[in-house]
Specification:
With 738 residues, the protein is an alpha+beta fold. The protein has twelve helices and 36 strands. A hairpin with a 4-residue loop joins strand 16 and strand 17. The longest helix has 23 residues, at 603-625. The two termini are 45 Å apart.
Length: 738
């Protein structure tokens, strides 16, 4: 898997850099600007974990490395101590199920992009089998990526039964775990709980997508219940697009044992002679500024090193899905393009329903795999739509679902061998009763998926944006491509093939914007984002639920990656009637877009959106590239939620506030701000104002110290004409340093 990298701050003890070192304690110090990871890499002994936390100075490093107190294996293996959880377990060709590893050397490498990696090599004391544990760092990010590689130097095949990316021991105290859970249309929900005795497992077995029901990212609050601004906190994010398993074992020792990696269930891997198996990276970060500090570390690292085009601003778009669903036609697309252009938008995306010749795509039961334009719907084809977009001064984007096929399709009729299906079984169908998953382990399928994108981009180079969907899990295990003895490789090789295909696409088309959509938020993970610019948070566009989902998602992902759209009222998923002001204020806290039929909007509503889009453009750099501070959680049950973004130089900020209930006299808390320059003065401007009179704070200036100590009073309701009153209120304030 590829990723963007840059320079690093990495300190490694000089003696440990030799390929072979004397049999004495050798300290490896992996450091970022604010954190340290200390290891004991003594030759002939297992690699030992010593310390992870705030950056250590030379004196403390020497003291910690030499105290010889609390250490444990940095990458535990199964066999010689078989009573504990392990990161790797194997079966050797002779049936031996044990590993006994000793350090053989430490080396450092510098990537083409300036990143630095320290690798600790370990070899089994009897078998020709190696494990290399890697640590990669960056000069401008307080994140360490760690992963393991297994190498078979023997003549026979070694079975990998467990192959975790990393292990991290966490000293027991009052440790609380923060994780995300959910389901379709209700993704990214936050759950926080103390770690207690026993095993905590967070896993995914979807096969193709991995973040609907749970996420492969967690936080550990070391000083009691999680806090946004204070307390020692560790964050961990597995950078993988497939099935994963996070384990936290709390037994009778002094540590919580945290393991993260691919879910090996039904995925035993046969490592052939001379083969190397690399696990996906686990990104680790640490902050003494609570969950907020961990989030900001992940956001900065992600924008600069992991997310495609992460430092570039995203366009404001209109997506056709909730506006017309499958009812695609040339006149309707032209109307929607003209409308979004008139409101100041920059991009129109035509969603599902545009393709299919023998089998027209009029619903979700046909045509996937047949990526030819339905000229009955679009007589002028994609070229005509691109010309219409250009005429309106906007860009054009398109929806595809290239990993999937319907049984009613020309592709399936020609190549039934391309689908995932076990021998001697009928395929299990998904969405629409006919959808199946193509086998991305098959190089011919990889070529097919590449050519879907390549054909579109070659014929229509004006395409600026691709919405890449994935609407089905792997429903039955079986590859028609893999050999009988390697059927257990399917769920791993699918994602290897997926990555190879995306590498080819990005090598040829580095500039096109690609959104990861997978029945909504099924691919909100750092494993796919090196190739994708953003993800669709959820198919649920209800603004109230989006406050909760986007709040949770923001724990690990920046706003620039989170697509958030203004949709219709009543909402198409919840039927809740939410005023346009509130819907707009929620959407503006992410990558702003629209998911609506503009011709059903009133002129007043269009004007309100035009004004909001114009004002969003003034704060877009702060929202999409600024530092996030979550201020009042919707999960606290205090009747409101609030967050803000602050420019890295603290010259500007954007404050969001949403009222979440409509009780009389709710006694809502006054929200204090964060992240500002305490000595500077900030002038207040309300965005998206609908009140007949400005807020009392409009145009006034306050010091950052005052705003962070006292906040500003937010009225419980909007001051509007009687016939416009409703039970929602929200505010967006722009703060500009004087």
């Amino acid at each position: 898997m590829t990723s963007k990298c840059s320079k690093t701050v990495l300190a490694v003890a000089a003696a440990a850099m030799a390929a072979m070192a004397p049999a004495q304690a050798e300290t490896v110090h992996v450091a970022t600007s604010g954190t340290s990871l200390v290891l004991d890499a003594t030759e002939g002994q297992p690699l030992k974990f010593v310390y992870y936390g705030d950056r250590l100075g030379a004196a403390d490093l020497a003291a910690v490395a030499g105290e010889g107190a609390w250490t444990t294996d940095a990458y535990p293996v199964y066999g010689m101590t078989a009573h504990r959880e392990t990161a790797m377990s194997v079966t050797h060709p002779d049936g031996n199920m044990t590993l006994d590893m000793g350090v053989t050397g430490v080396r450092e490498s510098v990537g083409e992009d300036g990143s630095r990696t320290v690798t600790v090599a370990m070899t089994d004391k009897h078998y020709p089998f190696d494990i290399e544990v890697n640590y990669r760092t960056y000069a401008d990010a307080d994140v360490i990526e760690t992963w393991a590689e297994a190498v078979n130097r023997g003549k026979g095949t070694v079975q990998l039964r467990e192959y975790a990316s990393a292990f991290l021991p966490i000293r027991r105290s009052d440790v609380h775990l923060t994780s995300l859970y959910g389901t379709w249309a209700n993704e990214g929900r936050v759950e926080e709980r103390p770690l207690q005795h026993g095993m905590t497992v967070i896993k995914n077995k979807d096969g193709a997508r991995n973040s609907h029901t749970a996420h492969a990212e967690v936080m550990f609050s070391l000083d009691g219940p999680a806090d946004e601004q204070h307390g020692r906190t560790i964050g961990a994010a597995l950078c993988y697009s497939g099935n994963y398993r996070l384990r936290i074992d709390t037994g009778d020792s002094d540590i919580h044992e945290f393991y993260a990696g691919i879910n090996e269930d039904n995925s035993t891997y046969n490592l052939k002679k001379g083969e190397r198996f690399a696990t996906p990276p686990l990104a680790l970060t640490y902050s003494s500024e609570g969950k907020g500090g961990v989030s900001r570390n992940f956001h900065s690292w992600g924008r600069n090193h992991r997310l495609a085009h992460g430092t570039e601003l995203r366009k404001i778009l209109l997506n056709s899905w909730e506006g017309v669903y499958f009812d695609i036609n040339e006149e309707g697309m032209a109307q929607m393009m003209a409308d979004i252009a008139g409101m100041g938008g920059e991009l129109f995306v035509m969603d599902d329903g545009w393709f299919g010749t023998k089998y027209p795509r009029n619903n979700d039961s046909t045509s996937l795999g047949d990526w030819t334009v339905d000229t009955r719907k679009l007589p002028s084809g994609i070229a005509g739509l691109c010309a219409t977009a250009k005429k309106n001064g906007i860009r054009f984007g398109i929806w595809i679902e290239p990993e999937m096929v319907n049984s009613q399709s020309e592709l399936y009729e020609a190549h039934p061998e391309y689908i995932i299906k076990p021998t001697n079984r009928e395929p299990v169908m998904g969405r629409g009763g006919t959808q199946m998953v193509l086998d991305m382990a098959n190089p011919k399928v990889q070529d097919l998926v590449f050519h879907v994108v390549d054909t579109l981009m070659t014929k229509y180079p004006e395409i600026d944006y691709i919405k890449w969907d994935s609407n089905a899990p792997v429903m039955n295990h079986g590859s028609q491509y893999l050999s009988a003895d390697n059927q257990s490789h399917l769920l791993v090789d699918y994602h290897r093939g997926f990555a190879k295909t995306l590498d080819r696409i990005r090598a040829k088309y580095p500039d096109v914007t690609i959104q990861a959509c997978a029945s909504g938020g099924g691919r909100a993970n750092w494993g796919v984002l090196p190739w994708f610019d953003e993800f669709w948070v959820s198919d649920n566009t209800d603004a109230v639920q989006r406050v909760y989902m986007q709040w949770g998602t923001s724990h690990f992902f920046p706003a620039v990656a989170m697509a958030s759209h203004i949709s219709a009222a009543p909402n198409h998923q919840t039927q809740r009637v939410i005023p346009l002001k509130f819907r707009t204020d929620v959407a503006m806290s992410g990558r702003l877009g629209m998911e609506i039929q503009p011709k059903n909007m009133t002129d007043e509503e269009k004007e309100q959106c035009r004004k909001a889009i114009a004002e969003y453009k003034t704060v877009r750099p702060v929202v999409q590239q600024g530092d996030l501070y979550r201020l009042l959680s919707p999960y606290d049950g205090k009747g409101a939620a609030s967050l803000m973004y602050v420019a890295p130089d603290k010259s500007e900020a954007v404050f969001f506030w949403w009222r979440l209930d409509n009780d009389v006299n709710p006694q809502l808390p006054r929200v204090t701000m964060a992240g500002l320059d305490p000595e500077a003065s900030y002038t207040v401007q309300e965005l998206n104002r609908i009140d007949v009179k400005p807020l009392p704070v409009e145009g006034k200036s306050y010091t950052g110290r005052y705003l962070m100590s006292n906040g500003l009073e937010m009225p419980e309701q909007h001051d509007v004409e009687w016939h416009k009153k409703n039970d929602y209120s929200s505010r967006v304030l722009r703060l500009v340093k004087k």
